[in-house]
Amino acid sequence: PLVLGIETSCDETGIGIVRGTTLLVDAIASSVEEHARFGGVVPEVASRAHLEAMVPTIQRACETAGVALTDLDGIAVTSGPGLAGALMVGVASAKALALSLGLPLYGVNHLASHVAVDIVEHGPLPEPTMALLVSGGHSSLLLVPDVTSDVRPLGSTVDDAAGEAFDKVARVLGLPFPGGPHIDRAARDGQITIDFPRGLTAGRDMERHRFDFSFSGLKTAVTRWVTAEREAGRGIPVADVAASFQEAVTDVLTRKAIDACREHGADHLQIGGGVAANSRLRAMARERCDRAGIQLRVPRPGLCTDNGAMVAALGAQMMLKGREASRLDLPADSSMPVTLVRA
Ligand code: ATP
Ligand code: MG
Ligand code: FE
């Protein structure tokens, strides 16, 4: 099936077109620069930007792929979770397309899409798949028997998401928003000189929260360290702090993910979401998975951060597996739970 996917859960207007398991085009318009001076995404600004970018981005995607709207077999859209107003623009656009073209509409979960996009990169997912989802709003270990119908959380963050920690620490270091890519870049010139805390990895905490994460203590530790240096009149070694912080995050993520694989007998690990674009996380996961005899699957960085291809990829899976389409009155669900794959 030829499926067009629409993603508008945050600040990226993403339009992807997938034929079966083949990605034809991934077109993106981002309003990230309009938000940068506020140090975070401004929902109202994001919604307006989606409205302006929607039609031109659909046209650009179709032209690039050499596809006419009348060639399509289905429409997929992010139904949630995300910013309510931003989601509404995508959902309303998808309904208009589905209704006017007489096509089935699939309202899919953004988080399941972060996992499903790996199919257009590395082929069918093993069943079940062990997935580490690390993004701006979520950090979870998921056992996924079938990405079109069943996602089971083994654990998740008890406070901040991994991406959120990157963004907050970047702010403390005076790096621009969104901070993840800037920390990644800064850390390349740094040394791991500071031993920052690894949350929920020892003692009773670990027993009670084997597959959960906590990053707010780490963020506080970095803030304290930086403040103490400033008060002592010393300059901040930004690259070293970035490298040390990044090491603490990736150490915890990879350790727990590999433990989960072992406990559940998974011979592979899939990593998805914006933080999966991080170069140190990718390298450490590669190293540790190799050592543990686990096959690692991570999409190219451009498919880890938000995009339309991931939505089209999951929509195409829905059609391939004969799943029922969504109703045309499907909602934009800003707090859609990870366990609900299709609205
Ligand atoms: P969610 O998917 O939970 O709804 P989101 O869609 O806003 O959240 P994503 O686009 O999946 O999040 O990921 C964005 C996050 O990824 C941001 O926090 C950003 O800083 C982080 N990120 C992007 N690139 C990198 C990188 N190279 N290293 C670390 N973090 C990164
Ligand atoms: Mg974004
Ligand atoms: Fe996302």
TrEMBL record:
Any Pfam family: TsaD
First-listed, main subcellular location of the protein, grouped into a coarse class: cytoplasm
Membership in a protein family: Belongs to the KAE1 / TsaD family.
HAMAP family in alphabetical order: TsaD (MF_01445)
Name this polypeptide is given: tRNA N6-adenosine threonylcarbamoyltransferase
Location of the protein in the cell: Cytoplasm
Reactions listed under catalytic activity: L-threonylcarbamoyladenylate + adenosine(37) in tRNA = N(6)-L-threonylcarbamoyladenosine(37) in tRNA + AMP + H(+)
Residues engaged in binding substrate: 133-137, 167, 180, 184, 278
Keywords attached to this entry: Acyltransferase, Cytoplasm, Hydrolase, Iron, Metal-binding, Metalloprotease, Protease, Transferase, tRNA processing
Cellular compartments per GO CC: cytoplasm
UniProt domain Gcp-like: residue ranges: 23-312
GO terms, molecular function: iron ion binding; metallopeptidase activity; tRNA N(6)-L-threonylcarbamoyladenine synthase activity
Cofactor, free-text remark: Binds 1 Fe(2+) ion per subunit.
Listed PROSITE patterns: GLYCOPROTEASE
Family annotation (Gene3D superfamilies): 3.30.420.40
Function in brief: Required for the formation of a threonylcarbamoyl group on adenosine at position 37 (t(6)A37) in tRNAs that read codons beginning with adenine. Is involved in the transfer of the threonylcarbamoyl moiety of threonylcarbamoyl-AMP (TC-AMP) to the N6 group of A37, together with TsaE and TsaB. TsaD likely plays a direct catalytic role in this reaction.
Residues that bind Fe cation: 110, 114, 306
Annotated InterPro entries: ATPase_NBD, Gcp-like_dom, KAE1/TsaD, Peptidase_M22_CS, TsaD
EC class name: transferase
EC number from the UniProt entry: 2.3.1.234
